[in-house]
Amino acid sequence: MKVNFKFINSVTYTLLGAVILAATSCQPEEVESGNGLTDPNVDASFTIETIPGEPNRFMLNANRENILKSMWNIGDGYYTGVLTEEIFLPDAGDYTISHQVFGRGGSVTETSQEINVAVSDPEAGNLIKGGSFMTTEDQAEWTILQISNSGANWTFSEGSATITGSGYNQQGIYQAVEVEAGKEYTLDMKVFGSGSTNTWFEVYASPTAPVQNQDYTADGRRMGLSTWDGCANGPFEGKLSNVGCVGSGRTVSFDQSGTVYIVIKSGGENIGSTGISVTNIEFRGKPN
C-alpha cells in the first residue's frame, strides 16, 4: 500500500473587520497586543495517520488550542467535525484534505494536505463509472433519458452534469450497475444550484429499466430535492444526503442479484438560473 501525505497551504484571515478599541488608557491599542477580542494565530494544522489493517481509513488529528469550531473538507464541501476525525476514502486516487478552524473574534484559519490512496476498498469501491464527469469518457458512461419532448436538458461539462429547464418539463440520466442479492449499498452525490421554483430532483436505484420517452417512477424515490418539501428553494451545495429532503433513504438492498439502474431525473416550473448540477456520484457496497 502506498499513501503519500503532502502539506499544501495555510491561510489565516479574520471575519472581524473592525474592533472597537479601548475605552480606558490601560487597555491595549491593537488586537495583536492582547485585548482578547480576536485571536489571529489560531492553528489549523493537523496530522494524518494511517489505521493499521485499514488502507482506506485515516485518522486526522488537529491542534486543540483555542479552537472554537472545526470544519473538514475531504472533497465534497465543508462539514462540522471533531478535532480527532476518522475518514474513509474507499476509492484509489488523490485527495485534498482541508481543515478550517474558528477562533475568538471570528478569526478563521485553514490548512490543506494531499493524500494519495493506492487501492480501492474491495467492498466499498464505487460501482458508478464516470461519476465525476471529468472527461468525455466519464460522460459517455451516462445515457440521457428523454421524458418530455422539450423544455428540459441535461448537459455535461468537465466535472459535473447540469439539468436546466422550465415549464414543468423533465429529463433524466442513468447508468446500469451490477449488484449482489441481500447486500447493502449506499447511494450519494454532490449537488449544487442557485435555487428553484416548483422543482423536483429525484434519484432511483431499481431493477426496472428506463424506457425512452416515458416517465420513470419505479420503486419510489431513494433521494431527492423538492421545493414543495422545503429544499432547493434557495442556493444550496453539498451531499444530497445532507441537503435533500425527500426519498426513502440512501441505503438500499435487493432481493436478487443482477442489473439495477441508477436514474436521476429532474424538472419543474423553473429549475433556476444555473440549473441543478451533480458530481461525485457514488453507489457502493456498505463498508464493514
TrEMBL record:
SUPFAM superfamilies in the record: PKD domain
InterPro entries: PKD_dom_sf (IPR035986)
Protein's UniProt name: PKD domain-containing protein
